[in-house]
Design goal:
- This protein folds into 4 domains: about 140 residues, Beta Polymerase, domain 2 (2-Layer Sandwich), CATH 3.30.460; about 90 residues, cca-adding enzyme, domain 2; about 90 residues, no CATH class; about 40 residues, no CATH class.
- About 50% of the residues lie in helices and about 10% in strands.
- It contains 22 helices and 11 strands.
- The strands form 3 sheets. The protein has a 7-stranded mixed beta sheet. A two-stranded antiparallel sheet has the order 6-7. It has a two-stranded parallel sheet with strand order 10-11.
- The radius of gyration is 27 Å and the shape is globular.
- The model has no long low-confidence stretch (mean pLDDT about 85).
- It holds the Pfam family PolyA_pol.
């Protein structure tokens, strides 16, 4: 594995950090997911580093670093514009009182540090100086077996941080590994604790699951678990309706529906915006995205085809969602095909916004762009000249 690590774009930066620590007689190892992914020949995006130096010492060795979370002692060392490498001390954690974070963190040994990690495959270290993988929890063997197993007692691991249930589903989906039986049953027993996790952390994990590329049906399995009665009700708490007539259609869709569409179809209430904002803490842009989806599903039959064609031209994501829904029979597929054909036949708008500046008030430009584009697709405006005549006549008195 040594050659793969040393050929990575971040290796020279890691070596620089390691050398600075070595000057003070401290070790520096690569930890966790990067080691796992090197072994699996997967793309490694970043390195998380660990050392036996304390946080106080690290602040002196790396004065340029940002300290994130004083109690956890995570240093973010700037390596380029907007890019950082995380460095922490080997640590042990205890007294998880709220199922989210430890109340006590202290410096420890590499062995003790491995004990606090979630799954064995994430409890691996790379010792570059010794040119070896350090494995205290059997993670390398579990990678060979394609097994997902908690470090130590699975009940304890999930009660420490209930978000690990979603992380388990994500790793199952992305790696195609089999969840060990004890780990699986412990996750089921811990499901009710998800309601204690902040909405931001849940939403972030769900978006990671959604972003996974399908592999041998594992992604669909993960989504089925996320939307199931046992997990879904705790994750979305008062959002999903597990008895919905749409549940089976959503879970067995030929192509997986994206998260916003699934939320709308399985909702107990018509407008989830308030719940999504208060519980899952969606951003303003994400709430707008959800509202666009509800608009698509709720108003499709109320708009003319040419208006929808214009909407699809402006919003590719909305168009893709419309196609998903048409495949499942929630929207007439012929209408989607007609809108697509309409856009191909009228690939260029007759007028651009800058061409309207001298003809109409600026606040009206967006409205008239849509109006002219719709009339173009209806065949009522044939060319640029006709569009200009239309505008001049409409705003002749201004």
């Amino acid at each position: 594995m040594s050659a793969i690590v040393k050929n990575h774009r971040l290796y020279s930066i890691f070596r620089g950090i390691k050398d600075r620590l070595h000057q003070h007689q401290f070790v520096c190892w690569i930890a966790g997911g990067a080691v796992r992914d090197f072994l699996l020949d997967r793309q490694v995006a970043d390195f998380d580093l660990v050392t036996d130096a304390t946080t106080e010492v690290l602040k002196k060795i790396f004065p340029e670093a940002l300290l994130v979370g004083e109690s956890f002692g995570v240093l973010k060392i700037p390596i380029s514009a907007g890019e950082y490498m995380d460095l922490t001390s080997f640590r042990q954690e205890s007294d998880y009182e709220d199922g989210r974070r430890p109340s006590h963190v202290s410096s420890s040994t590499p062995t003790q540090d491995s004990v606090r990690r979630d799954f064995t495959i994430n409890a691996l270290f790379w010792d570059d100086e010794g040119d070896r993988i350090v494995d205290y929890q059997g993670g390398r063997g579990d990678i060979e077996l394609k097994a997902l197993r908690c470090v130590g007692d699975a009940n304890t691991r999930f009660s420490e941080d209930y978000l690990r249930i979603l992380r388990l589903l994500r790793f199952e989906a992305v790696l195609g590994f089999q969840v060990e039986e004890k780990t699986y049953h412990a996750a089921l027993r811990a499901v009710s604790g998800i309601s204690r996790i902040s909405g931001e952390r849940i939403w972030a994990e769900l978006k990671k699951i959604e972003g996974i590329k399908p592999q041998n049906g594992n992604l669909d399995k993960a989504w089925r678990n996320v939307l199931s009665q046992e997990l879904g009700q705790e994750i979305f708490k008062s959002i999903l309706n597990p008895c919905s007539l749409n549940m089976e259609r959503v879970l067995t869709a030929k192509h997986r529906l994206d998260l916003m569409v699934a939320l709308y179809l399985l909702a107990e209430q018509e407008d989830l915006s308030g719940v999504l904002k208060s519980r899952l803490k969606l951003s303003r842009d994400e709430l707008k995205e959800y509202q666009r989806t509800t608009h698509l599903l709720g108003d499709f039959s109320k708009k003319q085809l040419e208006e929808w064609a214009y909407e699809f031209e402006k919003d590719e994501l909305l168009f893709q969602r419309a196609k998903q829904l048409a495949e499942q029979g929630w929207i007439d597929e012929n209408l989607i095909l007609s809108a697509e054909k309409m856009l191909k036949n009228h690939s260029e708008p007759l007028l651009l916004a800058k061409e309207m500046l001298d003809l109409i008030p600026a606040p009206k430009i967006g409205l008239e762009q849509k109006e002219i584009r719709v009339l173009q697709m209806k065949g009522e405006l044939k060319d640029r000249a006709a569009a200009l005549v239309y505008l001049k006549k409409k705003y002749a008195k201004i």
